[in-house]
């Protein structure tokens, strides 16, 4: 059958394994061979060899390359996944991060032998502080959620030093799921704050939640509807008045580069996602990096180690009695920092600002072109992303999921769907600054065409996608079967 | 540079949007909180200048190819076969996002499924997740998972854990009313009698590392039994390479196995990105932190893969999620998967045997020049050696010969200034080990003369 050709199912490495095949080579053992039983009590030795597959090197390469081509990815085409900032990842950043002087250096080398690495980390921290208007930085968190958790622990330490940890963190109902999850593992309870009819924090209703048990407000700005929190300075002031702190989830910082700084609108701590805002690749789910920038008052609580500069020398400072302790085995995802550092160096102030401006223009352009075809639950100009609702398509039996799957047939990755939770049948679209007018127009054409198909041929959507490596995947079956290893 | 619009296109688009100028799009942003002056950042660099600048910074670090390194202590200098860098450099893998849309992410999904299977096989556990940040956070997630499973608050931890891992665990446990009890490290291994004293009916889990921070091979089975007798879970942090020769956690009935996957094809990278793995029993799957990929079918009955049990995760369960993790270390998990396929059944054992033989040779040669091991425990790839002079002095002298002699234990334990933790991978040749031993002999002889 033709399906056995280009679209065949790729067997697993275990199915392909043949006893006796091998890829590896080892250096000649130039020291005496040992019998493990002479050195280690036999009961501590492995009884049954690890059943790893046996494959030749060409087979391994072919296996993974064959799998790779079934992935959609940024270098292929548009990836408008809202809140994920799927922008172009410059190749030079990959190249410099592969230098042996970065990629092959051991984390416990004496500081005098790694001054280049320390200087890079120190300067990256300085740049991130300048970009956000903050005073101090830790690069240790390995991802955004890791930064959130680190921030929550610092907030706890700050309040404890003032006498009382407090009990709750306020989070708008449009927030990312990581926000309440991070709050919980830091031992706080999260309290959901309603949005007003414009999609922003309802300031009047917020006041009712503010008391001396509030440890912090955790805000995303622009929020996940792509809207700037217009009253953010006033909100921050209200939170500060009851002794609380303002934490910003910086996932959407791409909209603010060179335009507005969290530190200037009352934010006390914020994490950034280097893998969103600063062009480092997402790697199919990671690694990212989630550095945390803070105001001076929070500095004593930063995780160790902190990088400090003594004249021309850089070193780690571990001796910080008020620190929350370590959050990473070493110093965070260093190679991701190298890439972001290179990115910022090449962009400069003007380049960063231009990214934010073009990201905002691209989002508003798509919004303007699509508003006649899809419902816009919160009107007005957006920032870097916007949210549409597919709830009016229900009459034809079509859900947002179907729209998303159908978009794949047009060659695009779908937007983020069913998020934020406050919008029914949400489609969250973030084009980023990397996309050309032609690409945006192709996407608009696809969306308009799909909106017409909803009327003329809803089945086409409900059974989509039709031209992808696999058809619509049965996710329910996966959860019932729970076949998670072979 | 990375933004395509021409001035003309920009004005065209603004017109289509229905505004006069870009600033009109910022109407919801009060002018008081708009930036008044450009960010104070260095002037932008061209690609050529940026490459030169970064090359200069890299060259300000030591040239790793010019030095012989015996550094370990949680990060190991293993050979990384060229197919790994080659495959992970494919845009299809590294410029994709988390595989939320399975129809166009089968490449990432199947590799994660295979990674989970490879980790399960290596550890002899039933299932594994799709990766965590690093070993330290994997230990902390395992302990949180144990607490979710049994609601108990006491954690008994081996004092022979890597001090950084222990510290990260303490950070994670700062809130939530946990009680962490730590055994003494002074014998270089976890003493079961001490565990017996610390464990009680409120103990959630016992945490042991094997081989431990000092390189010693632990007898974990009796500790696992003891934990089970008290209704507690056994969390074991293992070195994946050691499992080529050492009993895997599944063979001694551990409940949760975690570890540092850096040794599995990740470059040293000054400490990250690395890879935390976590494997456990299938019946605990609903308490597992992080992503899991499962096998399923598409609408035409064709075998395929997707993220599964997402109801455990933060984007669905929010404040009641099993963990807050979202972005993980997927590309590092791909590296580990390729590496384990490259090694295969025979290679993982041969690699482990090479490490064992080289470390044993080094210990024997050091003993011949009067350098004893600090602890008389069996070891795998790494051991602590005790010197008649301070380890820092030895390190400085060795550095003069472009040898990185190891990690001073004094860096972590105040009373251990004379001990050095030294690691021996398959990369360290006999000539290099002999050079280390001969240098040590000369340095001590010199010190004796001076003293």
Main β-sheet of chain B: number of strands, strand sense, barrel status?
7 strands, mixed
Largest interface: A-B, 207 and 209 residues
The CATH class designation of the largest domain in chain B is: Alpha Beta
SS element count, helices of chain A: 16
Global geometry of chain A: globular
Question: Pairing-aware structural class of the strands and helices of chain A?
Answer: alpha/beta
**CATH architecture classification of the largest domain in chain A:** 3-Layer(aba) Sandwich
Determine the CATH superfamily of the largest domain in chain A.
Type I PLP-dependent aspartate aminotransferase-like (Major domain)
Tally of strands of chain B: 15
Helix content of chain A: 25-40%
Q: Supply the CATH architecture of the largest domain in chain B.
A: 3-Layer(aba) Sandwich
Spell out the helices and strands of chain B N to C.
Answer: HHEHHHEHEHEHEHEEEEEHHEEHEEEH
Can you count the beta strands of chain A? 12
Sheet/helix structural class of chain B? alpha/beta
Order of helices and strands of chain A: HHHHHHEHEHEHEHEEHEEEHEHEEHHH
For the largest sheet of chain A, list the strands in their spatial order: 1-7-6-5-4-2-3
Spatial order of the strands in the main sheet of chain B?
A: 2-8-7-6-5-3-4
What is the averaged pLDDT score of chain A? 96
Fold topology:
The complex is a heterodimer of chains A (486) and B (451).
Chain A: H1 13-16, H2 36-39, H3 57-68, H4 91-97, H5 100-103, H6 115-132, E1 136-138, H7 144-161, E2 168-172, H8 178-185, E3 189-193, H9 203-209, E4 214-220, H10 232-241, E5 245-250, E6 269-272, H11 274-277, E7 292-294, E8 306-310, E9 313-317, H12 334-370, E10 386-389, H13 400-409, E11 416-417, E12 426-429, H14 437-456, H15 458-462, H16 475-481
Parallel strand pairs in A: 2-3, 2-4, 4-5, 5-6
Antiparallel strand pairs in A: 1-7, 6-7, 8-9, 10-12, 11-12
Helix pairs in contact in A: 4-12, 6-12, 7-8, 12-14
Chain B: H1 7-17, H2 47-60, E1 68-69, H3 82-88, H4 91-94, H5 106-123, E2 127-128, H6 135-150, E3 154-157, H7 163-172, E4 179-182, H8 192-198, E5 203-210, H9 221-229, E6 233-238, E7 256-260, E8 276-280, E9 293-297, E10 303-307, H10 314-317, H11 330-368, E11 372-373, E12 382-386, H12 391-399, E13 403-404, E14 407-408, E15 419-423, H13 430-450
Parallel strand pairs in B: 1-13, 3-4, 3-5, 5-6, 6-7
Antiparallel strand pairs in B: 2-8, 7-8, 9-10, 11-12, 12-15, 14-15
